[in-house]
Each structure stands twice: as structure tokens, then as C-alpha cells.
Amino acid sequence: MIRKPVAIVVALLAAVSMLSCGKKQVRIAAPTVENYSYAKPSEVAVSHMDLDLDVDFDKKVLTGTAGFLLDNKKKASVVHFDTWALNIRDVVLEDDQGNEKQARFVVGDSLELIGRPLSVIIEPNTRRVTVKYQTTTAARGVQWMTPEQTAGKKLPYMYTQSEAISARSWVPCQDTPAIRFTYTANIHVPQGLLALMSAENPKQATSDGNYRFEMKQPVPSYLLALAVGNIQYRSTGPRTGVYSEPEMVDKAKWELSDLEKMVQAAEKLNGPYRWGQYDVLVLPPSFPLGGMENPRLTFCTPIIIAGDKSLVSLITHELAHSWSGNLVTNATWNDFWLNEGFTTYVERRIDESIYGREYAQQQDILGVRDLNEEWDEIGKDSPDCALYVEYNGRNPDEEPTMAAYEKANLFLTMMEDSLGRANWDKFLKQYFDTFAFKTMTTKHFVRYLKDNVFADDSTRYDALKIDDWIYKPGIPSNAPKLESKRFDQVDTQITAFKQGVGAKGLHTAGWTTIEWQRFLDNLPQPLSAARIQDLDETYHLSEGNAAVQRSWFPSVIAANYQPAYPALQNYLMTIGRRFYVRPIYMDLAKTPAGLEFAREVYKKARPGYHPMTQTGIDLVLYPEKKAAP
Known about the structure:
This protein is an alpha+beta fold and 629 residues long.
């Protein structure tokens, strides 16, 4: 299915907004939208934020203030913030002498996807703007969970997901990756719960529920993060550790015991880790992503707790973001591949350092599998199959992005192969050091690459088809060849199975999760119920870990093998990661009976999914755009 764009208007919301202050009316021109934001960073930008919030689980709202220090570059008279479904209660100005006064401001009309602009009149000596506000239950960047939705079943839980443009739903901010700022926060929560942020974090709950946070390095708004729940901490090294609910924290510590090794491997490749601490928060199952690279505290899905460390490459990916994305940030969402492509490449290099080249090569091959699956859906000639993609107002959370990950990884691997690993590694360290805590566009990156690698040798540059890789769909002919001896052995068993060898006759001893994925992804479709039953009874695939199940259930669905449907339903009811559940719903929706089953399950599962997951599945199960259950 081709994802349909969300139309937005980037012209003026209205010619003029009227704002009343006493008897005097002030005219504020409604701001235009650039890079999904009303902010005008070239005029006036936030340099620091002080946040103070009360977390109310009963009303499911955050209430408090956000104070912003301004960098008024062009002596602007208005500063613009982004908001989404926020109640703005008041705005206060503070001058460079510390004097405060009520601000004149207006909350403009709302645009679909973008939200409302908060436009504040400022004066030449305005140093600080403080916004008093409250979130609403419509906040798309906040998920409130009942005790029943947690592992412990006793206490509530909440977490935020700000990327790409949802920070504005819980903080009025200049919600664009083009702006970076430091921040502090005072967070007040019910006693007994632990609050964590993408900042310096506590190791245990306080007695009064009050927490103080500081992020000393400047970050873009999409890296703002908050989580509150019954959470415990376990150290895994001198600067690494894991947080999770008590029921899972020790399992998480074992699964992620290599965190310090991962950081050390990443430093050898990229240069020093500049964020101090690196911790991982294992969230409840509803988390819609595999992981979110919030600085100092990666948020991740509990799916990775597989018991055999087979899925920890997800963490190496999020750790790699500490350089590509968090340190050097895509300036616009059109440049998303600069975040994710470099991160995927670095992830595989870390995997190779810790788990061996064979493991990293297998991950590359599975990544190309995922890329081809998406391209089969959207068409390989789609402009979205380039690295640089002009989203033109489409929802950046919903658009195809596998090219930004896996095609970009192939491109960077090609560069390594062509230039030599030592030369490429030297360039990487130089790149991250030169642009640390800055933003980067594709155009600027290409210029930097030409200057520092090719010395403006256009013949050599063109020979590597670099512009084709970046700006055109598809995979150029100089793509690296991907090979895996262990996958070759799996492929031998696939051939044997296709030729009629039963499950007990296959040689599967010692197979890892990714080798089972390779086998299951290449089964002929549809299999008979007898062959499905043979595989399931021999290897218990319906009860495997989530990655194995994602590759297994398509065969179950194609064969309409009903004995596995209770496990299939449990999978959809207990996993919230969109990448894992959306393909299964897509397979079910191919037949009338499957669609009926999917909708029945979805009615029960949907309340436990994050809004990001809900949106993606709504489009699959209700393409006619009728209201979802």
C-alpha cells in the first residue's frame, strides 16, 4: 500500500491575527510553516529551557511551565512556538535585569498535523519567555498506562515519544531539529514512582516524588523525553545501566550486560562518547518503536529481552545515535537518512566488533530483506526510495523510511569498501568531531564529502555514483555484495524442506534467532496445514520470541492454520511495536476472513497501542477511512 500524504497548508493561516492588550490591539502576522514548524530559527531561537511539571495520572495531564532563554539574532519583535492540543494559560516576559511582565500573545489557528502557533510579542531587552500551560488527553506524544497495562499490574506508567514532531504536544517549543538547546526540569510525580528524562537521572525513587534533571549538552526538541513509573535501576558498568519494572529489570541487566563493551566499540570508531552516562529504559510492551535514542537514556521495547542476546543489535543502533543524530543532527526531516543511515552503518560496525563479522553480515542481509519488503509495497521507483526525500508536508512518522536505514547503510558500506576502512574511519571521526552538537543538511554533507574525501575530483566522485545513491530511487550497480556462510547453511535446509524433508529431518542445531528468521522468511507460501503443524510441533515456533514469531505468523496466516491463531492473537495483544504488528495485520487483511479476525482482535488491542501504532494499523484495516473501533 502506498502511504497517502497528509495535506497541510504552508501559506499564511490568516493574513493577520488580532491580539488585545487593554485598549490597545496588536497585529501579528500568522507565521508560515517551514520544516513542520512555525519557529523562525534564523530570527529568534531558544537556547535553553527550564521545565517545571506536575504529572497527574488521574486526569492524564501535565501541568506547569516552560521557560525559554532566547537568542534574538535579528532583534525580532515576535517569537513563535509550536503547540499541539495544549491549553496555554499565560505567558510572562523577563528582561535582562530580571524584571517580569505579562506578555502579549496569540494562539493561532490549527493546521492538520502541525498544530497551533503560539506567537509572543517580545521587546529588545527580553531575555526569557515563560509559558504556563497544561496538556490535554489528545497529546499524541504522551501515553498514559493503567496498572493493568504494566508488568507489575499495580501502579500506573507514562512515557513520551517526541520524534518526529510530537514534542509540541507535551511542551510548547520550537519543534524543529534545526534548533538545539540545553534544559533543566523539575518533575513532580506521585510518591513511590520514579521519574526519568533524557538527562542526568536518579538511580532510585525519592521519598517526596520530586525530581530535578539537567541536560548540559544542547539537544533538539525531538530528543526531549520523560517516563514515570514503578521503575528500578541496575548497573552494568562504570557508565552504563538499565532501568525497568521490577519484574523485568534483572532479565534486562543480563540481556544488556554488554553495554559497556558497546560504548567502547563505538568510541573506537566514532571518537569519544560525549554524553556522560549511557543507560537503557526497557518500557512496557505498548512502546511503538524498537528503540528511541533519547540522550543518556535509550527508550526500548521489551521485545529485546529474548533470553539469548539475539536482539541486542537494536541497542547498538540506539547507542550509535549518540553520534549520528544526537551529536550531528539532520537539520530537516528530508535529511533523515543522515541520522538513520549513519546509525545503521555504525550499529553493524559495533556488532562486528563485539559479536563477529558473520553476525554483522547477517544483520545486513536481514536489513535488505526489510528494505525489499517495503519497496514491494510502495514501488521501487518511488521517490521515497531515494536517500534524500522531500516529504512536502506528509507525516514524517508515517512515510517510508527503510531506505534511510538500509539503503544508506549499503551506501556507506560502499564508501568504506571503495576508500578503504582506515581512510573511511578517519573521515567518520573527523565528521563527528567537526559538526558535534550542530545540524547537517544533505547538501552540506555532499559538499563536505567532496572537499574532504575527493578534493573536488569529480571523476572519482561520479565513478562511485554518489548522486545516484543519494538522490535517485533504487540501488546502484556498485552496491556491496552481502554474504553469510551460516545463512548458506540455512539455505541448504530451506531447499531440503522444499523438497519434502520433514521438520525432524532438518539440521537446525545451534540456530540463532536471525537464522530462524532467514529460514522462515523463505518458506514457500502457502504451506499445507500438515507441514505447518509439523514445524510448530517440532520447534514450537508459535511460542518463540517476537522476532521469530514475526517471521512465522505469515506462514500461519497463508495456510489459515487455526491451531496457531490463539498464539497469533496473543502476539497482537501483547506487542505494541509497529514494525512487528503492522505486517501481521497486513497479511490478515488480504482475505475477508482474515480481515474480520484482525478487526476483532484490533478492537481489543487498539487501546493498548501507542497512537503512532494505531495510525499505521487504522490505515491497513480501515482503508475506506471509516472510524476505527
